[in-house]
Specification:
This protein is mostly helical. Helix content is about 60%, strand content about 0%. The chain is built from 37 helices and two strands. Strands 1-2 form a two-stranded antiparallel sheet. Helix 15 packs parallel to helix 18, helix 33 runs parallel beside helix 35 (about 595-605) and helix 34 (about 575-585) packs across helix 35.
Length: about 650
C-alpha cells in the first residue's frame, strides 16, 4: 500500500480543498493508525458527497486495500468512507456522473464487491457489521447480496452483527426479485423470533420486504418490551435508547404505527428520559396528522408538571404550543406554564396562549414587546416539512406570536408604539409594521410613529401599514402624495397607500404609465387590484401576461395578477382558471404557498367559485395535514388552509 501511495503524482490531482498535496501524507498516517488522518481523508476526498474529485478516484483503490487488511487499525472508519462512495453508484448527478474521475471511481467500487462480500466473514465483528452496510448499497446485485447476508446470519454469533444483517436485508427489499422477496420475509421472522435481541430487526425486515402488508404493531411492541432487547444493537454507532424511536420512524412509515409509537414513547420513562428523539417524533406525528392531537395531548400535558425536569417541560410546552387550536382545552394549564420558573418553558406557554388569542397573556406580551425579557426574536424561519422529526428549538418570531392577538390589539398597541419609536433595525421594523398591518383599524393609534418612518429609509414598511388603514390614515395623505409623485424608490408603494386612503388612482396610474414594467412582481400586482374599475388598461396587460405562459399560473405573481384582473374587470373567468392551477397541489395532498394565497381570495369570488366546493370539502375532510413548512409552522399553515376552505364554502 505504501508503494501504491508513492506511485501516484498527487500534486497533479485535486480534492475538495484544492491540489491533493496532503493526500499521500494522510494515507500514510492512516496506515500508521492516525485516527485524525482518516477523518481528513473523508473530509477532503468525499467531502459533502454528490461529486467525485480526481484524488478520490486515485485514493479509493488504496482505501479498499486498507479496509481488507487486518493489520490496519481504523478499518471500520475506512469502510464508512467507502460506503459513502458506494452510494455514488446510484446517487450522482451531472455533470459529475460522466466525469472521468467519477467513471473511474464507480468502476473501481463495482470491481471491489467480491472483496467486500468476503469481509462478511472477517474476524472483527465491527468490520463484519460495516461490511454488511456497505454491500447492501449494491442494490443492482440485490439477490446475490441478500443470499450472502442470509448465509452469514446462519453462522453469525455476534448479536449487533445479526441485527445489522437483518436490517440490511430489508434495505435491499425494493431491488430484490419478486420471487425471492416473500421467502426472505418469512425467513427473516422465523430466523429471529426466538432471538430477543434480533427479533425486532426480523420484524422490520419482513415489513420492508412486504411493503404492501400492514405492519404487525403488536409484534413490534412486544419485541420492544423484550428484556433481552439492547437498543444500541440497532445502530452502527452507539446511541441512546431514544435513538431507537428515531430509528423506528425511519423504517416504518405507517401513520397508525407512528401514533402508537409516539404514545409509547411519551409513557415510557426510559425512552422519554433520552430527551429530544421521542419528543421530535411526537411532534412529527402532530405535524402529519390532524387527528393525532386528541390522542397525544393528554399525555403531553401530564409532562408539564413542575416535578418533571425542565428539559421535559420545555419539550412538552413546545408541543402543546405547536398543536395550535387543539391546545384550547389546556388553556388554564398553559397559564401556569406561562409563569414557569424556567424561562424556556414560560416562553412557550406565552406563545401557546397568544396563538389561542387568550387575553390573560397580554401583560406577558407587553413585556416581550418592550424586550424585557427578550423572549421572541425578530425572525421568520421557514422549514420544509420534516416528516422524520420536529424542530423543538424553532420558537416563533415576535410577529408570529402577536398576530393571532388581533382581537386584543388595543391593549398591545401602546407597547408596539413604544418599540416602534425606538427600533432601528430593518428586521425589527419589518416585523413591527407587519403586526400593525394585521391589526387593522386599531393601528391608527400608531400614526405618529408611522409618519416618522416616512421621513427615513423605511418608507415602504410604513406605507404597507398606512395603506391597510385606508381612510383612517388620512393625516398622512399629503406626505404620501409627495413621496408618490417623487423619484423615490418607494414611490409606487406610497402611491398605492395614497390610493387606499383617498380613493384617488391618479398617482398610481401615472407611475404605471411612465414605467410599463413597473407592475411585474407579486406585491405590485396585489396593489393594482385596489384600482378596481380605474385599472381597465392595466387589466388588459395582465391578461396578456397570464395568457402568454400557463406555467405562470402556479406562481405568486400569477395568482396576484389573476386576482387583480378580476377585481378590475369583475369577470372571474381568467381568475378562476389561474386559481384552478394554483389549487391543483391540494388535489394531490400537497400544499404550496400560492395555494394558500388563492384560498385567501376565494371568499371574495362568492358563488362564482362554487366549482371548487368538492376540492375544498376534500381538503377539510383529510385526516392528514397538507404541508409545506415543517415544525409548528406547518401545523399553523394547515389550520389556516382548513379555515380558509370553510370561509370560501360559506361565501358560496
Amino acid at each position: 500500500m505504501i508503494a501504491a501511495i508513492e506511485a501516484v503524482d498527487w500534486p497533479t490531482l485535486a480534492h475538495a480543498y484544492g491540489p491533493a498535496t496532503d493526500t499521500a501524507g494522510y494515507l500514510r498516517a492512516a496506515l500508521a493508525g492516525d485516527s485524525d488522518a482518516v477523518s481528513k481523508l473523508g473530509m477532503s476526498l468525499y467531502h459533502q458527497g454528490g461529486c467525485v474529485y480526481s484524488a478520490g478516484a486515485a485514493a479509493v483503490p488504496i482505501l479498499i486495500d486498507m479496509a481488507c487488511e487486518s493489520a490496519v487499525v481504523h478499518r471500520r472508519r475506512v469502510l464508512g468512507i467507502l460506503t459513502k462512495f458506494a452510494r455514488l453508484l446510484r446517487d450522482i448527478n451531472e455533470p459529475w456522473r460522466t466525469y472521468a474521475a467519477a467513471l473511474e471511481l464507480r468502476a473501481t467500487m463495482r470491481i471491489a464487491l467480491p472483496r467486500f462480500i468476503e469481509l462478511l466473514d472477517d474476524a472483527d465483528p465491527g468490520v463484519r457489521r460495516m461490511a454488511a452496510g456497505l454491500v447492501a448499497v449494491y442494490d443492482s446485485d440485490a439477490d446475490q447480496i441478500a443470499e450472502a447476508l442470509r448465509r452469514r446470519f446462519q453462522i453469525e454469533t455476534d448479536y449487533p452483527v445479526r441485527v445489522t444483517l437483518l436490517l440490511c436485508l430489508g434495505e435491499l427489499s425494493a431491488e430484490l426479485s419478486a420471487d425471492v422477496r416473500p421467502g426472505l420475509a418469512t425467513w427473516a421472522v422465523e430466523a429471529s423470533e426466538t432471538d430477543g435481541r434480533a427479533r425486532l430487526a426480523g420484524l422490520i425486515a419482513r415489513h420492508r420486504l412486504t411493503p404492501d402488508s400492514a405492519v404487525d404493531a403488536d409484534a413490534v411492541f412486544a419485541a420492544l418490551a423484550d428484556p433481552a432487547l439492547v437498543a444500541n444493537d440497532y445502530f452502527v454507532k452507539a446511541e441512546s435508547a431514544g435513538g431507537l424511536v428515531r430509528w423506528l420512524v425511519r423504517y416504518i412509515d405507517d401513520g397508525g404505527f407512528q401514533l402508537r409509537l409516539a404514545t409509547w414513547g411519551l409513557r415510557n420513562e426510559e425512552i422519554r428520559a433520552s430527551g429530544a428523539p421521542v419528543f421530535r417524533q411526537v411532534g412529527g406525528v402532530l405535524l402529519r396528522s390532524r387527528v393525532a392531537a386528541s390522542a397525544l395531548l393528554p399525555d403531553i400535558a401530564q409532562l408539564l408538571d413542575r416535578q418533571q425536569a425542565a428539559e421535559t417541560r420545555t419539550a412538552a410546552a413546545h408541543l402543546l404550543a405547536a398543536a395550535g387550536q387543539s391546545a384550547q382545552p389546556y388553556a388554564d394549564l398553559l397559564l401556569d406554564v406561562a409563569h414557569d420558573p424556567d424561562d424556556a418553558v414560560a416562553t412557550r406557554g406565552i406563545w401557546a396562549l397568544a396563538h389561542l388569542g387568550d387575553p390573560r397573556v397580554i401583560p406577558d406580551l407587553v413585556e416581550a414587546i418592550d424586550g424585557a425579557p427578550a423572549r421572541f426574536a425578530f425572525s421568520e424561519n421557514h422549514y420544509q416539512a420534516d416528516t422524520l422529526g420536529f424542530m423543538l428549538t424553532d420558537v416563533p418570531g415576535l410577529a408570529d406570536v402577536l398576530t393571532p392577538m388581533r382581537p386584543h390589539a388595543d391593549a398591545l398597541i401602546p407597547a408596539l408604539r413604544r418599540r416602534l419609536a425606538r427600533e432601528t433595525t430593518t428586521p425589527g421594523l419589518y416585523h413591527l409594521t407587519e403586526v400593525l398591518a394585521a391589526y387593522g383599524p386599531a393601528a391608527a393609534a400608531a400614526l405618529p410613529e408611522l409618519r416618522a418612518l416616512l421621513a427615513g429609509a423605511d418608507v415602504r414598511l410604513a406605507c404597507n401599514v398606512l395603506g391597510n388603514l385606508g381612510p383612517d390614515a388620512a393625516e398622512a395623505a399629503e406626505e404620501l402624495h409627495g413621496i408618490g409623485a417623487s423619484s423615490h424608490q418607494d414611490a409606487a408603494t406610497a402611491a398605492w397607500a395614497y390610493l387606499r386612503i383617498t380613493g384617488d388612482p391618479e398617482l398610481f396610474l401615472r407611475g404605471a404609465d411612465v414605467d410599463p414594467d413597473l407592475i411585474r412582481s407579486a406585491p405590485q400586482f396585489r396593489q393594482a387590484a385596489d384600482l378596481g374599475p380605474h385599472g381597465t388598461e392595466l387589466a388588459e396587460r395582465f391578461a396578456t401576461i397570464l395568457n402568454a405562459k400557463r406555467s405562470y399560473w402556479q406562481s405568486w405573481p400569477g395568482v396576484e395578477a389573476a386576482h387583480a384582473h378580476w377585481r378590475i374587470t369583475s369577470d372571474p373567468t381568467l381568475c378562476l382558471d389561474v386559481f384552478d392551477a394554483a389549487l391543483d397541489p391540494l388535489r394531490h395532498g400537497r400544499l404550496l404557498p400560492i395555494s394558500r394565497q388563492a384560498l385567501r381570495y376565494l371568499p371574495e369570488l362568492g358563488s362564482a367559485a362554487a366549482a371548487f366546493r368538492p376540492l375544498l370539502e376534500q381538503t377539510m375532510a383529510s385526516q392528514e395535514r397538507l404541508l409545506y413548512s415543517g415544525g409548528w409552522r406547518g401545523i399553523a399553515e394547515d389550520e389556516e388552509v382548513v379555515s380558509l376552505a370553510r370561509a370560501a364554502i360559506a361565501a358560496m
